TrEMBL record:
<keyword id="KW-0594">Phospholipid biosynthesis</keyword>
<keyword id="KW-1133">Transmembrane helix</keyword>
<keyword id="KW-0460">Magnesium</keyword>
<dbReference type="GO" id="GO:0047295">
    <property type="term" value="F:geranylgeranylglycerol-phosphate geranylgeranyltransferase activity"/>
</dbReference>
<comment type="function">
    <text>Prenyltransferase that catalyzes the transfer of the geranylgeranyl moiety of geranylgeranyl diphosphate (GGPP) to the C2 hydroxyl of (S)-3-O-geranylgeranylglyceryl phosphate (GGGP). This reaction is the second ether-bond-formation step in the biosynthesis of archaeal membrane lipids.</text>
</comment>
<dbReference type="Pfam" id="PF01040">
    <property type="entry name" value="UbiA"/>
</dbReference>
<dbReference type="GO" id="GO:0000287">
    <property type="term" value="F:magnesium ion binding"/>
</dbReference>
<dbReference type="GO" id="GO:0046474">
    <property type="term" value="P:glycerophospholipid biosynthetic process"/>
</dbReference>
<dbReference type="GO" id="GO:0005886">
    <property type="term" value="C:plasma membrane"/>
</dbReference>
<feature type="transmembrane region" description="Helical">
    <location>
        <begin position="37"/>
        <end position="58"/>
    </location>
</feature>
<keyword id="KW-0812">Transmembrane</keyword>
<feature type="transmembrane region" description="Helical">
    <location>
        <begin position="156"/>
        <end position="175"/>
    </location>
</feature>
<dbReference type="InterPro" id="IPR023547">
    <property type="entry name" value="DGGGP_synth"/>
</dbReference>
<feature type="transmembrane region" description="Helical">
    <location>
        <begin position="227"/>
        <end position="245"/>
    </location>
</feature>
<feature type="transmembrane region" description="Helical">
    <location>
        <begin position="87"/>
        <end position="120"/>
    </location>
</feature>
<keyword id="KW-0808">Transferase</keyword>
<protein>
    <recommendedName>
        <fullName>Digeranylgeranylglyceryl phosphate synthase</fullName>
        <ecNumber>2.5.1.42</ecNumber>
    </recommendedName>
</protein>
């Protein structure tokens, strides 16, 4: 195995696009809290990138057997990175994230600790439990906004955004599990679609999205944001509603649509803060 192949494999383990997006979402949390340019916001964003990359790497380490079925092109199954190398790489990334997080306010440190524990234990403890793994990932997805706001000392400013992001992520994770039923069943995992049936799981995902859509006007109704936010959130709601409809026939396509809707929703909060 050449050095170049190994470096590329380690880079892929991080899922860099996913990690960078998580850092950007942390900055959005700080922006919604009104302090996007504070040094603490940048530190939190970098810590989030490191933690997300570490979580992705350790998830690949624990998932190496199931990835051989579901995702054989991933670095460990295809031999680009050894399992031991992936584990060591994740430890280094986690350490970097911890060092950065310790410079932040106490509430932000608390969020970071909970997130790191969730990332480390997700695959071994929660992933195979019906709904539990989905809930953990949903919390982690929403917590990026909360962490950014907490880093600048205003965690309550991002509570609504945290809740909406968590609900959307929960629905997307359930839909993803529907797509992965074959490999998960082969591995012996008891995910939500396996436990309750694919259609029932899809109905639950759709119901969660309905709750998210119905809750999306809350910042406007509570006078946190004005009409600009309301105008911006409507397209996001429509996209997420469409994703719920598509999920019944094409879970893979629904995932992509839902991800787009989630980004639109995050953008709506940026618009709302900018116009406030």
């Amino acid at each position: 195995m050449t050095l170049g192949v190994r470096v590329r494999g380690l880079f892929e383990l991080c899922r860099p696009a996913n990690a960078v997006v998580s850092g950007v979402l942390t900055l959005i949390g700080a922006y919604v809290a009104g302090r996007p340019f504070a040094l603490a916001a940048l530190v939190a964003a970098v810590a989030t990138v490191f933690a997300t990359a570490a979580g992705n790497a350790i998830n690949d380490y624990f998932d190496r057997d199931i990835d051989a079925i579901n995702n054989p092109e991933r670095p460990i199954p295809r031999g680009a990175v050894t399992s031991r190398g992936a584990l060591a790489f994740s430890v280094v990334l986690f350490a970097g994230s911890i060092v950065l997080a310790l410079s932040l306010p106490l509430f932000a440190i608390a969020v970071a600790v909970v997130n790191l524990l969730a990332l480390v234990t997700y695959t071994k403890v929660f992933k195979g439990l019906p709904g539990a793994g989905n809930a953990v990932v949903a919390y982690l997805g929403g917590s990026t906004f909360l962490f950014g706001a907490a880093a600048v000392g205003r965690p309550l400013a991002a509570v609504v955004l945290f809740a909406l992001a968590a609900l959307s992520t929960l629905a997307r994770e359930i839909i993803k599990d529907i797509e992965d039923v074959a490999g998960d069943r082969e591995e012996g995992l008891n995910t939500l679609p396996i436990a309750v049936g694919e259609r029932n799981a899809c109905l639950l995902a759709a119901a969660v999205l309905v709750v998210a859509v119905l809750a999306s006007p809350v910042p406007y109704l509570r006078d946190l944001f004005g009409v600009a936010y309301l105008a911006a959130i409507v397209p996001a709601d429509l996209v997420m509603a469409y994703a719920a409809y598509v999920a019944f026939d094409d879970p893979a396509r629904a995932q992509g649509i839902l991800k787009y809707g989630m980004f639109l929703a995050a953008a709506a909060f940026v618009v709302g803060r900018a116009a406030a």
